[in-house]
Amino acid sequence: MLQTKINLKQIFAIALLLISFNSIAQPSKRDSYKSKAPKYIFYFIGDGMGLSQTNAAEAYLGSLENGNGIKKLQLSTLPNQGFYTTYALNRFITGSAAAGTALATGHKTTINTISMDAQRLQPLKTIAEMAKEKGYKVGIVSSVSIDHATPATFYAHQPTRNMYYKISLDLSKSDFNYFAGGGFKHPEGDGKTDEKYSLSNFGMGATEDIENKEPNSIKVAESRGYTFVNTVHDFKKLKKGDDKIIAVAPKLAAGSALPYSIDQKNGADISLADFTEKGIQLLDNSNGFFMMVEGGKIDWASHANDAASVIKEVLQFDKAVATAMEFYNKHPEETLILVCGDHETGGLALGFAGSHYDSSFNLLQYQNLSYEAFSDKLALYKQEHADNYSVADGLDMVKEHFGLGDASKGLQLSPFEMQQLKDAFDKSMTYADEMTKNDQFYLLYGSYDPFTVTACHILSHKAGIGWTSYSHTASPIPIRSIGTGASLFTGFFDNTDIPKNLMKLIENK
């Protein structure tokens, strides 16, 4: 009995030692790092991008080649791998503002806070601001609005992410060299802000008219020396040596974001990879550069449980990473590339109860537009057929845009799936925004159009993909890296360690 007690005590002591070692391993590794600072730093953040989002994209590519495995993304070829926790100070499942603050400053904060302390009193220095002080040129790129939570955490300091106007003023105060991607949500003022109203944070909900307009933040930026560009022609004209540029996509979708990749038209749109490539051209100089690139609509499509759009957003994000890799191959001894995410969204699973052990990821190729574009088409139909809508019309729409019901594509509908679509179509045609939606409604459709999300769910399920949430999850997030200092980003650690490691790398530049 005594021997048993001793053994248990020994085991407990060893466990404590291992826990202690794990908690100090990352700082110890950082503190002992002595190598040179990277001259060029790429910091890629896939918003809402967990391991499942990237693996789904790889499985999709593999299935298109008639394979039963995966085709690796560029980001998966990076040799150094790690995982990290994402919790906020006041919630285990984080939000983009708190997670962005952790990734930008190395400090935990509270939900919705933009690079300020938990009490929202003191600003927190960001890795981008430190890089600017060290002589790097700095670029911030995003596929959503450039004043959205994640990009904002690198240059702004505001009590809440919903203060878009003040964030847009902080943008031009930063003196950073290149901002690109989406536009400004509220360039003439926010009006009333409500932290509880979150739909607008991922491209949904109407934008209220501002009665008392503030000075236009784009004009303010121009008065501070920035050049504003929002046409393909002017974007292509930008050349090495041009400085203090704000380059916005010529065509913006909901939320002042880039259109979803699945909805973009070649030649008429500028992709995330295009903005990244232009950033390299404009920022490259003898003192080096720091560029943060966000794939923001991975998150939005995951909120909507739209698997096809998620995969297309991941593929577009990966093309931006490939652009950075081309640069790395020319400067391998001077470049650091990090690819990570702020949190996972949707609880995406590569498996669904109804499909048992079967997967058919190739079926996702038959969806030809995003949930957002389909919802817009459905809203127009509802407006034109308020008193004479037909379920048959709805079924024709999902057949045209999702392939559902087309047996030649392997997408025949079961009686159960047919009933799901009919019930959802009736709800889409009859519900109003102001109607109370009960728990059952939310579990079925979230905050989305019922017919649209049902079509997304059925196609996901047929592909062998499941969803657990319309919100974020707390799954640990992978980080991939290559280049100078990449060894600091391996193991299992916290999201705050990433910018702390970056700050360590450049502190003696």
Quick synopsis:
The chain is α/β, with parallel strands linked by helices.
Question: What does this 3D model show about the protein?
Answer:
The radius of gyration is 24 Å and the shape is globular. Helix 1 packs across helix 17 (497-506), helix 9 (272-283) packs parallel to helix 11 and helix 10 runs antiparallel to helix 11. It contains 17 helices and twelve strands. The N and C termini lie far apart (60 Å). The chain is 41% helix and 12% strand. It is α/β, with parallel strands linked by helices and 509 residues long. Residues 1-6 and 11-25 have low confidence and may be disordered. Strands 5-6-4-3-7-1-8-11-2-12 form a ten-stranded mixed beta sheet, sandwiched between helices.
Helices and strands, with pairings:
Blueprint (H helix, E strand, L loop, with lengths): L1 H30 L8 E7 L4 H14 L15 E6 L10 H10 L21 H7 L3 E6 L6 H7 L8 H10 L4 E4 L35 H7 L3 E3 L2 H6 L7 E4 L23 H12 L5 E7 L1 H7 L3 H24 L4 E7 L2 E2 L25 H14 L6 H12 L12 H16 L8 H7 L4 H14 L8 E2 L3 E7 L7 E4 L2 H10 L3
Parallel strand pairs: 1-7, 1-8, 2-12, 3-4, 3-7, 4-6, 5-6
Antiparallel strand pairs: 2-11, 8-11, 9-10
Helix pairs in contact: 1-17, 2-11, 3-5, 3-17, 6-7, 9-11, 10-11, 12-16, 14-16
The main sheet orders its strands as 5-6-4-3-7-1-8-11-2-12
Main β-sheet, in a few words? 10 strands, mixed
Query: What is the count of β-strands?
Result: 12
Distance between the termini: 60 Å
Shape: globular
Number of helical runs?
A: 17
The chain-level mean pLDDT equals: 92
Compute the gyration radius: what is it?
24 Å
